[in-house]
């Protein structure tokens, strides 16, 4: 029998991990999806006030021209503190669905890449695997998110439009048809896919760098949570910068219905010309705070919920 070496042992352990999801795929990916749904809905829901202010700055920079803190004060002065929770219903519901598809899908597509390429090839090309898996997962997640995000933006941009998720969703469907919910599908893909790709890749790379110095197996659960928080914070900053222009366009296109006969493409071109590069980064300060915070807590919550659900057999490709 050939002697065991650290390298051989590592390959064997990775092979076992890679095979584990196949043993109980539905249960395992269901738990990944539930953990993702919880971490995204809780974090996005909790940061609804920041999202309200960020959206107001994007849509009305003349009025909301004093940054994030000034924006909070103006919203409260003009509309009351309750206005900061505008759109909390569609935010929670939309990101519950999106989180399930995003995190569950990421784990699923990562495993499929390993099945297709083989573990060694996937490990050697893990950045490409992270990028492809996150992009595929986000595409399906956005199909679920888009109608609820369109409803949220309409409620935030037009406070008197409807009283909440159900009434706002129903009013848009009745008056504008199902197409209104997907008017922003192009911008949301343009925003969310680069956002998610950078988010997962930067998170994986930062965590990998930490664990190369401080092995994960030697860390306590609280230390691993701290790594998830720190890696997630850096990943969130990167993702916010990459996706900010599309986020601004998404807010603009969902603010009001298009003119009769006006295509989504022509609306996007017009909005892009009006904004310019500088205008597309309106509200970046609020969004850096928002995305950095929620991404940090997303990965921390996701890791802890996975452990509590027993879903600890996901594949790690780091060498």
From TrEMBL:
<keyword id="KW-0677">Repeat</keyword>
<feature type="repeat" description="Solcar">
    <location>
        <begin position="27"/>
        <end position="112"/>
    </location>
</feature>
<dbReference type="InterPro" id="IPR023395">
    <property type="entry name" value="MCP_dom_sf"/>
</dbReference>
<dbReference type="GO" id="GO:0005315">
    <property type="term" value="F:phosphate transmembrane transporter activity"/>
</dbReference>
<dbReference type="GO" id="GO:1990547">
    <property type="term" value="P:mitochondrial phosphate ion transmembrane transport"/>
</dbReference>
<dbReference type="GO" id="GO:0005743">
    <property type="term" value="C:mitochondrial inner membrane"/>
</dbReference>
<dbReference type="InterPro" id="IPR044677">
    <property type="entry name" value="SLC25A3/Pic2/Mir1-like"/>
</dbReference>
<keyword id="KW-0472">Membrane</keyword>
<keyword id="KW-0496">Mitochondrion</keyword>
<keyword id="KW-0813">Transport</keyword>
<protein>
    <recommendedName>
        <fullName>Mitochondrial phosphate carrier protein</fullName>
    </recommendedName>
</protein>
<feature type="repeat" description="Solcar">
    <location>
        <begin position="223"/>
        <end position="308"/>
    </location>
</feature>
<comment type="similarity">
    <text>Belongs to the mitochondrial carrier (TC 2.A.29) family.</text>
</comment>
<keyword id="KW-0999">Mitochondrion inner membrane</keyword>
<feature type="repeat" description="Solcar">
    <location>
        <begin position="125"/>
        <end position="209"/>
    </location>
</feature>
<keyword id="KW-1133">Transmembrane helix</keyword>
<dbReference type="InterPro" id="IPR018108">
    <property type="entry name" value="MCP_transmembrane"/>
</dbReference>
<keyword id="KW-0812">Transmembrane</keyword>
<dbReference type="Pfam" id="PF00153">
    <property type="entry name" value="Mito_carr"/>
</dbReference>
């Amino acid at each position: 029998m050939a002697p065991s070496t650290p390298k051989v042992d590592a390959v064997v352990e990775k092979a076992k991990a890679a095979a584990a999801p196949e043993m109980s795929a539905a249960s395992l990916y269901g738990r990944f999806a539930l953990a993702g749904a919880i971490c995204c809905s809780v974090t996005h829901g909790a940061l609804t006030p920041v999202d309200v202010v960020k959206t107001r700055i994007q849509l009305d920079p003349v009025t909301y021209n004093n940054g994030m803190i000034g924006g909070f004060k103006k919203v409260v002065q003009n509309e009351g503190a309750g206005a900061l929770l505008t759109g909390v219903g569609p935010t929670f519901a939309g990101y519950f669905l999106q989180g399930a598809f995003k995190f569950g899908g990421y784990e699923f597509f990562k495993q499929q890449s390993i099945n297709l390429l083989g573990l060694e090839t996937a490990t050697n090309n893990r950045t490409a695997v992270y990028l492809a898996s996150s992009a595929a997962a986000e595409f399906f997640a956005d199909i679920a998110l888009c109608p609820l995000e369109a409803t949220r933006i309409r409620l935030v941009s037009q406070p008197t439009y409807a009283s909440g998720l159900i009434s706002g969703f129903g009013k848009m469907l009745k008056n504008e048809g199902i197409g209104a919910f997907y008017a922003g599908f192009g911008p949301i893909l343009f925003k969310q896919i680069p956002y998610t790709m950078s988010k997962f890749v930067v998170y994986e790379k930062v965590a990998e760098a930490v664990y190369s110095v401080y092995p994960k197996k030697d860390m306590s659960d609280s230390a691993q949570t701290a790594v998830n928080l720190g890696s997630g914070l850096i990943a969130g900053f990167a993702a916010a910068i990459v996706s900010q222009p599309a986020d601004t366009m998404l807010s603009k296109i969902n603010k009001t219905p298009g003119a009769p006969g006006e295509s989504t493409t022509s609306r996007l071109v017009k909005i892009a010309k009006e904004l310019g590069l500088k205008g597309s980064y309106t509200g970046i300060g609020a969004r850096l705070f928002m995305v950095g915070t929620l991404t940090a807590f997303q990965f921390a919550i996701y890791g802890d919920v996975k452990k509590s659900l027993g879903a600890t057999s996901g594949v790690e490709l780091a060498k």
